[in-house]
């Protein structure tokens, strides 16, 4: 039988432990608030995370959009400056505050290394879907998982009704990935004197026809080993689904 002194000691220990954990949690939350970071990833993903932008992201984002290979099929096809990077980040932050959605930063959970961005943006009176990534992540499960996660978050949590992707006709990898995510062809257009395909996805169709398989694929890809590229059996499964 526990003595009164023992019960009192255990009670004090429990109160101290609870208070200590509360303080630590408060410190963590305060730090996140200071950085203005909001993590939107689901716990089912142990490979990548998405978050909002912060002004300190200018450094790595400047390097990303200064890469000619990254920018070759985007807009006028020219690399952009650090000033342009800062302006884009400001626009993304404004959209996140006013619309609740925008391009999100994708990063490797294990290391914190930025992958690039993925998500939505208001353009030409439409909600545009797009992304950019460092070359080392092209064709990898890191980019695929980020895309699935961002698309699902926008269409289900942010209530994006429909998104349109405008992709250079020669960018076969992105066109193929979007198709596998549930986008469907909806026409063509001429932008910057280059032919582009238009693809769209509807929230209702996504939820009823595509979401379940996308989420299942997300779980499998995000938990397969630690290699950078998509394992052959997972890649074959991904390609066979559509």
TrEMBL record:
Pfam families linked: Acetyltransf_3
Superkingdom of the source species: Bacteria
Limits of the N-acetyltransferase domain: 49-184
InterPro entries per the UniProt record, alphabetical: Acyl_CoA_acyltransferase, GNAT_dom, N-acetyltransferase
GO molecular function: acyltransferase activity, transferring groups other than amino-acyl groups
Protein name (database record): GNAT family N-acetyltransferase
Classification of source organism: Bacteria, Pseudomonadati, Pseudomonadota, Alphaproteobacteria, Hyphomicrobiales
């Amino acid at each position: 039988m526990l003595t009164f002194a023992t019960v009192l000691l255990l009670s004090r220990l429990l109160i101290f432990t609870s208070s200590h954990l509360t303080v630590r949690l408060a410190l963590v939350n305060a730090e996140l608030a200071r950085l203005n970071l909001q993590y939107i990833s689901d716990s089912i993903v142990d490979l990548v995370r998405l978050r909002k932008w912060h002004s300190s992201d200018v450094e790595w984002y400047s390097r990303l959009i200064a890469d000619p290979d990254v920018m070759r099929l985007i807009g006028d096809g020219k690399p952009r400056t650090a000033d342009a990077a800062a302006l884009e980040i400001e626009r993304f932050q404004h959209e996140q505050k006013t619309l609740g959605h925008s391009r999100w930063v994708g990063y490797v959970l294990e290391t914190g290394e930025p992958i690039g961005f993925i998500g939505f943006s208001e353009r030409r009176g439409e909600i545009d879907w797009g992304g950019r990534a460092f070359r080392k992540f092209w064709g990898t499960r890191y980019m695929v998982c980020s895309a699935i996660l961002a698309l699902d978050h926008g269409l289900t949590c942010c209530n994006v009704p429909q998104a349109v992707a405008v992709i250079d006709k020669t960018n076969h990898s992105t066109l193929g990935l979007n198709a596998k995510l549930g986008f469907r062809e909806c026409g063509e257009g001429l932008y910057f004197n280059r032919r582009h395909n238009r693809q769209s996805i509807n929230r209702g169709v996504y939820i009823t026809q595509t979401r379940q398989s996308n989420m299942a694929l997300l779980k499998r890809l995000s938990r397969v080993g630690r290699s950078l590229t998509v394992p052959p059996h997972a890649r074959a499964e991904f390609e066979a689904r559509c």
